[in-house]
């Protein structure tokens, strides 16, 4: 590898400090917050056209959302679901614009990690951000649909081949591994296409693995902390849930950006130009 683990950690910390990862993560948290509810609005308006329910969407968020933020999200989503279904077109526009702003912030951060300048035109960079946004939405919808169709596929195989009840139990357990796999695919796509640098799919896998595991563990740990120790409502009153949501997004931004720094270090250590 060319460096000891201690040297790698020191190098990573220096890059995190020099590239102002914590400051950029704060920017990402702001854009994530702006993108969240338009995205949920878009997904809510899709519900009548897909074999999923509103509860399916909320259950995915509930697995990771910390503390009282889930109540905040559910209240807003329920209010949106009671509105006119013609909000679909608005939801698409708002989601694309808000989320693509977030992707643009990620692009700038990744370019900084690889020490490259953004040379793509505004239309190209914005188009790429929109395509990545669409890709993430599609992958998220697939993640919602797989448990629905996965159960049907498992029951079909069970009946056709006369498999044991144990197979059906294992199949149902495997279906719920879909969420981490979907996250991994999203991160691979983000790390691969976002930077203004030619990369291979293989070269971004270390950062994608770190981001997937890091985001899941950080989200679960922060959720436990908020529910067990953190009392943000006592400090911030009625906006406590918003503050918790922003902190969660901030931690998520840090994890994503560190994943990009890990990929840049990996590229440099494998003798590629960085």
Account of the 3D structure:
It comes from Bacillus mesophilum. It is found in: Cell membrane. It is a multi-pass membrane protein. The chain crosses the membrane at residues 21-50, 87-107, 128-153, 173-194, 201-226, 238-258. It is built from eleven helices and no strands. It has helices at 5-18, 21-46, 54-62, 69-81, 88-113, 122-161, 165-175, 178-193, 205-228, 232-236, 240-269. Helix 3 (54-62) packs antiparallel against helix 4, helix 5 crosses helix 11 (240-269) and helix 8 (178-193) crosses helix 9 (205-228). The two termini are 16 Å apart. The model has no long low-confidence stretch (mean pLDDT 77).
Give the tags.
274 residues; mainly alpha; 78% helix; YihY/virulence factor BrkB family protein; membrane; transmembrane helix; transmembrane; cell membrane
In short:
InterPro entries: Virul_fac_BrkB. The protein contains 11 helices and no strands.
Tally the helices. 11
User: Average pLDDT value?
Assistant: 77
Q: Element order, helices and strands?
A: HHHHHHHHHHH
Shape: globular
Number of domains: 1
Helix and strand content put the structural class at mainly alpha
Total beta-strand segments? 0
Distance between the termini: 16 Å
Radius of gyration: 20 Å
Give a quick account of the main beta sheet: strands, pairing sense, barrel closure.
Answer: none
State which percent range the strand residues make up: under 5%
Helix content: over 70%
Oligomeric category? single chain
Q: What low-confidence regions span 5 or more consecutive residues with pLDDT below 50? A: none
Subcellular location: Cell membrane
Transmembrane segments: 21-50, 87-107, 128-153, 173-194, 201-226, 238-258
Membrane topology: Multi-pass membrane protein
InterPro entries: Virul_fac_BrkB (IPR017039)
